Structures are given as structure tokens and as C-alpha cells.
Amino acid sequence: MRKRILVLLSRVPYPLEKGDKLRAYYQIRELAKYHDLFLCALSDQRVHPQAEEKLFPFVKGLKVFHLKKAGIAARLVANFFSKKPYQVAYFYSKGIHREINKYIESIKPDHIYCQLIRMAAYIENHPVDKTIDYQDVFSKGLDRRLNLAPWYLKPVFKSEYLRVKRYEHKVFDLFDKKTIISFPDRALIPHPDREKIHVIPNGVDTDFFHPLEAEKDFEVIFSGNMGYPPNINGAEYLVREIMPLVWKESPDAKVILAGANPGNRVRALASDKVKVTGWVDDIRPWYARAKVFVAPMQIGTGLQNKVLEAMSMNLPVITSPLANQALRAQVGTQLLIGNNPSDYAQQILSLLNHKEFSKTLSYNGLKFIHEQFQWSSICRRLEKIITTPGETGN
């Protein structure tokens, strides 16, 4: 039986340059096969001109509420005296809350699917059956960033870490069902009943991200939103600590840093051996031009979409133990792991110098993705969770 489902997001899920937008877009696309979806999304910037065109095939209604910069600033200042996370204050507007309530009353949804704790305040007391998608454990991500932050920012990160941790606990009891991206993330949720949270990983569009033939004129690629702190950290770690060891033996090796929003720290890495692409309409040709994908993630949480994409395009992958916690790929047969710069460098050189090993690793990774990370099967599980009474986790 088709149900009316309201999806509540903190961003318009197009273009797909951020992980939360990608996750929401594909979940909406798949859920629309079984139910009537209505989308409410906030936006703190100009909406992409193609967003409605890309979303309307999947939703019966679309409401976008714009966050004004003056309002954001005022809320952040006022939040100094509150215990709420600053990210909640950033996205919460009383005026928008009233409009969302009106929309809920008009469409009368059977279920509300809310992505991220920052949006929970809009529906936390609403009587409709509802699901919160934690996605990642934001408190742990803040804790990891706290350790790397300069001294003058540590008090800010410490305060937000404690606020988010309390809020993650509070939100748990306000929703009928809960989802999260990985088992390691679930284990870090600060609530005694965390086992009731359903693990719904991200998938990859294997029809889109498929092996392509191209001249391999770059040795290494790292991709992602290059304005996101864990990716900035990963890019610097790759270029400044790993690649100098590779260049000692392979001085002509070239690197691609591909992804949107590269700030000054990432742009500063550009050289005759390192290309920083910035936003690209189609990242697949860049994957196809590289021989090895390296994601040396030192901080951050969740499942790395970039790793799924690279494996789906038949690239051999080297990543960190942290990133593989969520992926759960077999080390040595489906991907490789680096624990320090020397490890990464040796793994890169091994793949570059041993083509048969690289080919076998790539094939095993591709097969793993097709078996475990298809959006269609993953979202079918999400659909059953949303529409089935009860809240037992998996």
C-alpha cells in the first residue's frame, strides 16, 4: 500500500557535491517507486537552477525554505546562552517551523523521514510516525576534529562536541524509528538502546559509476568535497606526507585532487605534479584517468562515498582503517590499508609496479560493490523500516 511520506532535509539534494545530499537524493529516488513523497528542504544559498527539474520526477510536492544570513547570525549569537548545538541553531527558524507545520497539515503524511539531528526540532513533538536518520555520529566527528584544531578553536569544538553528544541522546527518544550509515557509527551513539538503530549504508549508482576506458595519465586520485575538513586534512596528508615518499622512487607520478569547493589550503597543494580540479560536472573521466585511488582519511565518520565510487569504476583503492570500519571490505583482496605515510607510499608503488595485482584488487572491489552496495536493495530495506510497525534494530 502506497503511503504519503514527508522528507525533511537541511539542504536541497541537488547538485550531489555533499554526502548528505547524495544520500537523500538516491533514497528519494528509490522510495518514490513505492510511495508518494513530499519534500521539504532548507537552503542557505541560491538553489541550483536544475534542482526542481531533477527532483520533480520523484516527488509529489516540493517546498524550499530559505535561511537568511541575518537570521542565522542572530540565532548563533543567541545560542551562546543555550545548550542546543550550534548546528541546530543555524538551521532552526520559528517562521519556517510554522510553515512546515502548515505543509504537514495540508498533505497529512503517514510518515515523516527526517535527515540529520539538526532538523529534529521541526518535528520532534509531532504525533505522526517518524524516523530520524542520524547518518553519521556528528559528536565523534567533532571529537576527532578537536584533537587537530588550533588551540584558539579548541574551546569552540569542545563546546559543540558536548552539545551535540547530549542532543544525539535526546533525539533518540523523540522518534519512532532511527537509522544510521554504519555499525561503527551506531556503536558510538550515546544512548543505551543504540542497538535499536537500523544500519542503512550508502550505496552507489553502478549504472552511472562504471568502468571507463581512458588514457591513464595520472597515477593517484583523491576525490570529495574539498571544503569539508576531513577531506582537506586527507588531501594535505596525501600530498605533503605520502607523495614525497612516492616521488623518491617515481618522481614523475601525478596526483588529482578532484572535487567541489577547494579552499586556500587545498589550492595551495597544486603544482606541476598535483592538479586541483575544483567543481566538475562529471567526475567519472577523472577517475578513469587515474591508476590508483587513495583516501587517507584521518578524521571524519560514516561511509565514504568516494571509496564506493572509485571501486565501482574498477579502481584499486587504498584507504585508512578508519574509513574501512564502515565499509568492511576484505583487506588485501578488495582494498588495501595504510597506517602511516610509509605504508601508503609502499602500497601505491606496489599497485603501480604490479599490474596483475592491481587488476585483481580492482576486480574484487568492483564485485564487492555490486554485491553489497546497490541503492535499490539498500533503499528497499529502508522502505520496509519506515512502513513496518516497531523499532527493532539490525
Structural overview:
This protein has helices spanning 19-31, 51-55, 69-78, 86-91, 94-107, 138-148, 154-172, 183-188, 229-249, 264-267, 284-289, 305-312, 321-327, 341-353, 355-372, 375-387, and strands spanning 4-9, 36-43, 61-66, 111-115, 130-135, 177-180, 198-199, 218-223, 255-258, 274-278, 290-295, 317-319, 336-337. It is an alpha/beta fold and 394 residues long. The chain folds into two domains: 4-203 and 375-387, Rossmann fold, CATH 3.40.50.2000; 218-372, Rossmann fold (3-Layer(aba) Sandwich), CATH 3.40.50.2000. The protein has a seven-stranded parallel beta sheet with strand order 3-2-1-4-5-6-7, with helices on both faces. Strands 10-9-8-11-12-13 form a six-stranded parallel beta sheet, with helices on both faces. The two termini are 24 Å apart.
Write the layout of secondary structure elements.
Elements lengths: L3 E6 L9 H13 L4 E8 L7 H5 L5 E6 L2 H10 L7 H6 L2 H14 L3 E5 L14 E6 L2 H11 L5 H19 L4 E4 L2 H6 L9 E2 L18 E6 L5 H21 L5 E4 L5 H4 L6 E5 L5 H6 E6 L9 H8 L4 E3 L1 H7 L8 E2 L3 H13 L1 H18 L2 H13 L7
Parallel strand pairs: 1-2, 1-4, 2-3, 4-5, 5-6, 6-7, 8-9, 8-11, 9-10, 11-12, 12-13
Helix pairs in contact: 1-16, 6-7, 9-14
Short note summarizing the structure:
The protein is of the alpha/beta class and 394 residues long.
Number of strands: 13
The largest sheet is: 7 strands, parallel
- Strand pairing plus helix content: what structural class? alpha/beta
Instruction: Return the CATH topology of the largest domain.
Output: Rossmann fold
Beta-strand residue percentage = 15-25%
Average the pLDDT over all residues and give the rounded result.
Answer: 94
Overall structural domain count: 2
CATH architecture of the largest domain: 3-Layer(aba) Sandwich
CATH class of the largest domain: Alpha Beta
- Rg of Cα set: 21 Å
Total count of helical runs of at least 4 residues: 16
Helical proportion, percent range: 40-55%
Measured between the Cα atoms of the first and last residue, the distance is 24 Å
CATH level-4 homologous superfamily of the largest domain? Glycogen Phosphorylase B
H/E series, N to C?
EHEHEHHHEEHHEHEEHEHEHEHEHEHHH
